[in-house]
């Protein structure tokens, strides 16, 4: 039993390390979501879907093995998890009639989306469920990091654009000052 538990722990640690590496290496938000869905699907042995926040709502972004449309009850459970930050769907006290269980992707500062795992794949309190919850936490932070990186690139682009505009306006105003001074001097002489 002790050898079996040690082997399970080693497997969990290896999975978390591989997931951490893959999530850290993801270039953008969509790639991070794809990596998260694949890691959770492999850990749970079930279909997984990641819904990301866009414009105050959530939209299905990626699924593993494939992105499948969600029914109305499943979307209601996903929105509940998004809005309340609590698990919803199958095996929970909120909208248990759905065939999915949803958890919010709560980052350090904000909620970035929702992860859904096909019903009956995880037993409550099992090692698999703990692993999936750890992957969800890693994924939430990775998605938040991807959002922050995207915002930093956007801010840098705006800063460079502003600096270019300022240099252009300074150049134009300098080029116009000399002719305007000449015109003003000539006008003063004529008056």
Give the helix/strand layout.
Layout: H1 2-25, H2 29-44, E1 48-54, E2 57-64, H3 72-84, E3 88-89, E4 100-106, E5 111-118, H4 127-190
Antiparallel strand pairs: 1-2, 1-5, 3-4, 4-5
Helix pairs in contact: 1-2, 1-4, 2-4
Protein described:
The chain is of the alpha+beta class and 191 residues long. 61% of the residues lie in helices and 17% in strands. It contains 4 helices and 5 strands; from the N terminus they run ααββαβββα. The protein has a 5-stranded antiparallel beta sheet. Strand 4 (100-106) and strand 5 (111-118) form a beta hairpin. Helix 2 (29-44) runs antiparallel to helix 4. The chain is elongated, with a radius of gyration of 26 Å. It starts with a helix and ends with a helix.
Task: Please describe the structure with a list of short key phrases separated by commas or semicolons.
191 residues; single chain; 4 helices; alpha+beta
Assembly state here? Answer: single chain
Q: Which residue ranges are poorly predicted, with pLDDT under 50 across at least 5 consecutive positions?
A: none
Biggest beta sheet attributes: 5 strands, antiparallel
Helical run tally: 4
């Amino acid at each position: 039993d002790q050898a079996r538990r040690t082997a399970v722990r080693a497997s969990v640690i290896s999975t978390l390390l591989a997931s951490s590496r893959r999530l850290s290496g993801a270039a953008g938000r969509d790639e991070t979501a794809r990596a998260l869905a694949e890691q959770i699907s492999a850990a749970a042995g079930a279909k997984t879907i990641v819904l990301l926040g866009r414009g105050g709502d959530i939209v299905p972004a990626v699924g593993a093995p494939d992105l499948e449309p969600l029914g109305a009850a499943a979307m209601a459970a996903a929105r509940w998890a998004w809005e309340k930050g609590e698990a919803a769907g199958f095996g929970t006290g909120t909208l248990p009639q759905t065939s999915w269980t949803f958890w919010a992707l709560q980052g350090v500062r904000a909620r970035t989306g929702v992860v859904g795992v096909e019903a009956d794949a995880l037993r409550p309190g099992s090692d698999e469920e703990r692993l999936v919850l750890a992957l969800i936490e890693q994924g939430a932070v990775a998605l938040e990091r991807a959002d922050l990186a995207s915002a930093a690139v956007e801010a840098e682009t705006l800063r460079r654009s502003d600096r270019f505009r300022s240099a252009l306006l300074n150049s134009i105003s300098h080029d116009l000052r000399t002719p305007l001074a000449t015109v003003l001097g000539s006008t003063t002489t004529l008056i």
